[in-house]
Design goal:
Blueprint lengths: L39 H19 L3 H11 L18 H8 L7 H22 L1 H22 L11 H11 L21 H4 L3 H18 L14 H18 L10
Helix pairs in contact: 1-4, 4-5, 4-6, 5-6, 5-9, 6-9, 8-9
Length: 260
């Protein structure tokens, strides 16, 4: 895989080029990235989520907003024997993905965008735009599926990109802490196989802390300020596991023999 930033046109004769021929080279075939140099796919996803929330918050009437929730949020009851009692029956087909574009408030939106920038950025740089989007969809589906298993028949809508962002975290945990300086998230670290992941101290520490935080806040043991609805922690874990297990199918940097 070409790990270079597609938006970076620096060449070896460019004074700003920081490649193998230059002092201070920091990775295989690429230089250090500016902190806020986000991949285009991250910027566009953030823009879509932002616009959707602005429209819902300031331009839709209450009945229109309610229709939007019914049409695009994930409602577990759609997959039970009371599904016919809900409006927009066809939403059962697309809502396991579209719920990720709706948010419950500005704090909810900005928190997800912050974590997407942190963990989605190295993932997008590593696997490319198309594979990143497909893996994000798989994370949304994984989050919806695990939430459904725990809440079959539940009428409470699930909204937010938390499952998708959790999928980015799960996938990035396979490589993001393995290269560069300690504590730095990098796109070009060597990827761990699944077997190696569960014997790697850094990975296990990250996953353990992440799981504990989700269980504590999701159970309500520690309330989150401004959160009026229960935290769909099962969706977070479902997205994380989807990213963790499916990352190997999308990583273009390692030989096929290491996929597992």
């Amino acid at each position: 895989m070409n790990l270079s930033n597609p938006d970076n046109d620096n060449q070896p004769d460019d004074p700003g080029y920081n490649g193998p021929e230059q002092p201070g080279y920091s990775g295989p075939g690429r230089g250090r990235e500016p902190v806020f140099n986000l991949p285009s796919v991250i910027v566009w996803l953030a823009a879509v989520m932002f616009v959707v929330h602005v429209v819902r918050e300031y331009f839709l009437q209450p009945d229109q907003n309610l229709w939007t929730i019914y049409a695009f949020s994930f409602i577990p009851a759609r997959y039970s024997d009371i599904a016919t009692q809900l409006p927009i029956e066809m939403a059962a087909w697309w809502s396991p993905v579209t719920y990720a574009f709706l948010h419950g408030g500005w704090a909810h939106l900005f928190m997800n965008l912050l974590w997407m920038a942190a963990f989605g950025t190295p993932l997008a740089r590593r696997v490319g735009t198309t594979r990143f989007l497909i893996l994000s969809i798989i994370a949304a589906l994984g989050g919806a599926l695990l939430h459904l298993l725990f809440h079959i028949g539940d009428l409470i809508p699930v909204i937010g990109a938390s499952a998708v962002v959790s999928g980015h975290m799960g996938a990035a945990a396979r490589f993001a802490f393995q290269g560069g300086r300690r504590g730095m998230i990098t796109a070009d670290g060597p990827a761990l196989t699944l077997a190696q992941s569960f014997t790697n101290r850094v990975f296990l520490t990250f996953m353990g802390v992440w799981m504990a935080i989700n269980l504590v806040f999701g159970s309500g043991a520690i309330p989150i300020a401004g959160a009026d609805q229960p935290i769909a922690w099962q969706a977070h874990i479902g997205g994380f596991l989807a990213g963790l297990f499916f990352f190997s199918l999308f990583d273009r940097t390692k030989p096929q023999s290491n996929l597992l």
